[in-house]
Amino acid sequence: MRLGTRIFLCYVAILIICFSFPIKWTLDNLRIRYLEGVEDSLSDQANILASWVGVQMENGNFRTAELVEVFKDVNNRKLSARIYSMLKTHVDMQIYITDAAGIVIFDSEDASRVGENYNEKWRDVQLTLRGEYGARSTKTDAKDPDSSVLHVAAPIMAAGKIAGVLTVVKPTTTINMLLATAITRLELVFGISTLVAVLLSFLVSLWMTSPIKRLTQYADDMSNGKRTPFPRLDKSEIGEMGKSFERMQEALEGKRYVEGYVQTLTHEIKSPLSAIRGAAELLEEKMAPDQQARFLGNIRNEAGRIQDIVDRLLELSALENLKILEKREKILFSSLIRAALESKDAILSKKGLRVVSQFPSDVMIEGEPFLLRQALSNLLQNAIDFSPAGGKIELKGEVAGNMLNLSVRDYGPGVPDYAKPKLFDKFFSLQRPDTGKKSTGLGLNFVREVALLHKGDISLDNCPDGGLRALLSIPCLEK
Questions:
Q1: Is 164 in the same domain as 261?
Q2: Is residue 36 part of a domain?
Q3: What is the rounded CA–CA span in Å between residue 68 and residue 81?
Q4: What is the CATH number of the domain that holds 308?
Q5: What domain range includes position 275?
Q6: How far is the C-alpha of 401 from the C-alpha of 475, rounded, in Å?
Q7: Do residues 118 and 129 touch, judged by C-beta distance below 8 A?
């Protein structure tokens, strides 16, 4: 994923994380804020009306018939009140009154409810008669969340005692209309703000990554040998990094060619030197003349290999740049395996490793013998390095179609998951169990390049019962 995309997605993620909850909380609590405002007004109205009724009761002038007439007149009124975006056409507030026992003595909505015991039925009456604040919200239709009706009660005081309860009733229909309008406008504002923020995040990501793109183009041009001026960068850390790149490029330009030779030479002569050293140590011990002759022969062979490596170093240094093999020979594959095993004989003996091999003896391949022998040697050396002392290494060759598949399997610790994607990277290496040291990390990269040049492939996988299996696939010739 590109850096600009990452920055953009990070901005968007931060925007979502930081604002999704406040926006959701605002929308979810908007209805509560509206209800609080309405309930505050209803509480004032209930207390004012309850005080008026209480005075009438003390004076003996309270008559429910008068309230009936008042509400008839109110309900017959035609209103045309423009309240911001809402047009109010009728009064939708109702009241009911109970005595000190909670028995309904007046209901502006339904006179048939007079005589019902609301003290047993509704909490607004129950709480108010106990001297507490009484309010409730009740749905007229249990399945319709917008059918809630607010009930706010106040005590009717007469002669210093609670003589009854007056409850103001207000449907939430008007509140729902106002709330829907407010939510629509808020969603529009939030939506526009989010789009603007996303657009600005995109522009910021472009602005932040543009100097990096110029620096990357400069590095690519220099890698391709082009003469290009150093790009214009800002004065931030990116500009400082660019100047460091320029200084590094100037310092390494003269060293890169030699360094590649040194790295390759160091890696490739490591195995034969180990074989010579192992054979020399064994020669210090008492042994039969035929064994001594065999180890001396190994020393001569490995010394010849070192000479061969030095002679062919110029060819190896250009390996990665080769598109096709300039020199191809028909090779008996079994001879390559035997040569690779003989070169490791001393190291195998010293570590007490047993090699179990099974491969066809008559399969012919076409390629560069030196490169293929070095690739096989590298795979064997890896298996030796990671095998426990006294263990075994398995070599198995099979022909599938026009491909020869050679597996080199050890019974060592295998490869950790984090290292699998890096195994073929240059200079990446894992610690050897015996010494705790790392190799130069060029061997597997070399094997892969050889396989690709021969139109083959190489893969490494952990085995279920332990160890690692390297599978080298090379095209073979038809018999």
A1: no
A2: yes
A3: 24
A4: 3.30.565.10
A5: 257-475
A6: 9
A7: no
Residue 406 counted as domain residue: yes
Do 322 and 461 reside in the same domain of the chain?
yes
Tokens (6 digits) for 83: 């309240």
In 84-185, where do the E strands start and end?
A: 86-88, 94-99, 104-107, 135-139, 148-158, 161-171
By the 8 A CB rule, do 342 and 298 touch?
yes
User: At 407, phi and psi to the nearest 5?
Assistant: -105, 135
DSSP three-state, residue 32? helix
pTM over 0.90: no
pLDDT in tens, the chain (479 residues): 666 777 778 878 888 888 788 877 877 777 778 788 888 989 999 999 999 999 999 988 899 988 988 998 888 888 888 777 777 778 888 999 999 999 999 999 889 999 999 998 999 999 999 999 999 988 888 788 778 889 999 999 998 899 999 999 998 877 777 777 777 888 888 888 888 888 888 888 777 777 777 777 777 766 665 546 667 776 776 777 777 766 666 555 545 545 555 665 666 677 778 878 887 887 777 778 787 788 788 788 777 767 766 665 554 455 655 556 777 888 898 888 888 888 888 888 888 889 898 888 888 888 888 888 888 888 898 888 888 888 899 999 898 888 899 999 999 888 888 888 888 876 577 888 877 766 656 678 778 888 888 888 999 999 988 889 999 999 988 76
Burial class of residue 465 (count of CB atoms within 10 Å of its CB; 0-12, 13-18, 19+): exposed
What is the distance between the alpha carbons of residues 479 and 474, in angstroms, rounded to a whole number? 15
